[in-house]
């Protein structure tokens, strides 16, 4: 688990320094920086995958630096994992509006009870300096191997595109089944893999889908009859077992929920699951079910999500919620404390308190 994170100079985040738990639900109004916090992990994944130069040129270093290079000389960040290992890096702008790694360092802590410091029980292991791309993957040290296992899973799942030509609705390569893709492009192939190899998990996913889409009976997944290298998301409706439907017949919300259920109920969970606004288009009952899936998944994966849903927020405890506000041009993050809300929680949910302006994360 990422137990502590520090970010300085990234987009709207001038500086943030706080602990992360197994469930982290970011709430706040539009434009306060929730998505910037989530996108930070996308940048880290691009660093890890040795695509920093391409990513930073495409995004623009001036856009990634807090109010541009005139105000911010570099981006700094450190992530602490399980109080045992840590990853620190700095990113500096170039004349071509790209970013390079000024410093890339791994740390090992011999004392799990300590907080992150640069001295004491934390031992640094230099990975690279002044490098266009990360050397982390190539490093053979035990510290780097530990960090790699986390950074490899930093993918932001985003199932918003449900248009007719979206990846979720189009046929998939049947062998594209190692992991569920960030946009759900291989949903049919991945579910087919679960059906054939992890039947118990597959049946549980079907059962949960039925609970929010009672017309759904079961999946009918098999290679395309005319092209066995492709597979469609085919299914049958209750009382109509002889008629095959496909992904184009699912509503937007149902299709998104299927992707979310598959992500959160798969047998081999990612170390970290990041989802930007998972509630989009879901019925309130489906949102409540989604909250239950998130809680259960948090026993195996760390969950970081941003949301605008009062209903979703109402399903969690104060310690799960991080409010995000914009103060003096920068994003400010605060985790709720239960003791400050005990007088309210006997009569109201956290969602109610958010609507009543009792907690932060407001548009003013």
From TrEMBL:
Signal peptide boundaries: none
Alphabetical list of InterPro entries matching this protein: ATPase_AAA_core, P-loop_NTPase, RecF-like
Record-linked Gene3D superfamilies: P-loop containing nucleotide triphosphate hydrolases
CDD domains, alphabetized: ABC_ATPase
Domain of life: Bacteria
SUPFAM superfamilies according to UniProt: P-loop containing nucleoside triphosphate hydrolases
Domain annotation ATPase AAA-type core: ranges: 23-313
One Pfam family this sequence matches: AAA_21
PANTHER family in the record: ATP-DEPENDENT ENDONUCLEASE, OLD FAMILY-RELATED, DNA REPLICATION AND REPAIR PROTEIN RECF
Protein name per its UniProtKB record: AAA family ATPase
Organism: Flavobacterium ginsengiterrae
